[in-house]
Design goal:
The relative contact order is 0.22. It is globular and about 40 Å long. Helix 2 links the parallel strand 3 and strand 4. Strands 2-1-3-4 form a four-stranded mixed beta sheet, with helices on one face. The protein is of the alpha/beta class. The chain has a single domain, classed as Macrophage Migration Inhibitory Factor (2-Layer Sandwich), CATH 3.30.429. The chain is built from two helices and four strands. It comes from Cohnella cholangitidis. This is Tautomerase family protein. InterPro entries: Tauto_MSAD, Tautomerase/MIF_sf.
């Protein structure tokens, strides 16, 4: 049940690259978190330079304008080991699939509970 938002600086990625990013994120969610393959809910947002801010070197990570913010809201219950292996694998696979820098893969996981989700019709399907 993850909901994914990906934000990036406009004109940094082409449509086919965004599709690869989407597929790569989904593949890693299936592999690391056992998400069903058809549980696909992703939104991509491009931003003008005056709407996109980041530290180029916070925590000694050298970022570029190719930065991707990947915000994933999902059901709680994953272990620290699952999360850290997910971060590592996603950065690695995105860097290979798109020849992008691993430093530019910024991931945030937000845990929720079943009552926090409605998939349509005003009904909490997971309760």
């Amino acid at each position: 049940m993850p909901f994914i938002r990906v934000s990036y600086l406009e004109q940094q990625y082409e449509a086919r690259q965004l599709e690869r990013i989407s597929q790569t994120i989904m593949n890693e969610l299936v592999l690391h978190f056992n998400v069903p393959a058809d549980d696909l809910f992703q939104v991509f947002h491009s931003h003008r330079p005056e709407e996109f801010y980041y530290s180029r070197s916070y925590l000694n990570v050298e970022r570029s304008d190719g930065l991707l913010y990947i915000h994933i809201t999902l059901k709680s219950g994953r272990t620290v080991k699952q999360k850290t292996s997910f971060y590592e694998a996603l950065a690695e696979h995105l860097s290979k699939e798109l020849t992008m820098r691993k430093e530019d893969v910024f991931i945030v996981l937000v845990d929720t509970e079943y009552e926090d989700w409605s998939f349509g019709n005003g009904f909490a399907q997971m309760l």
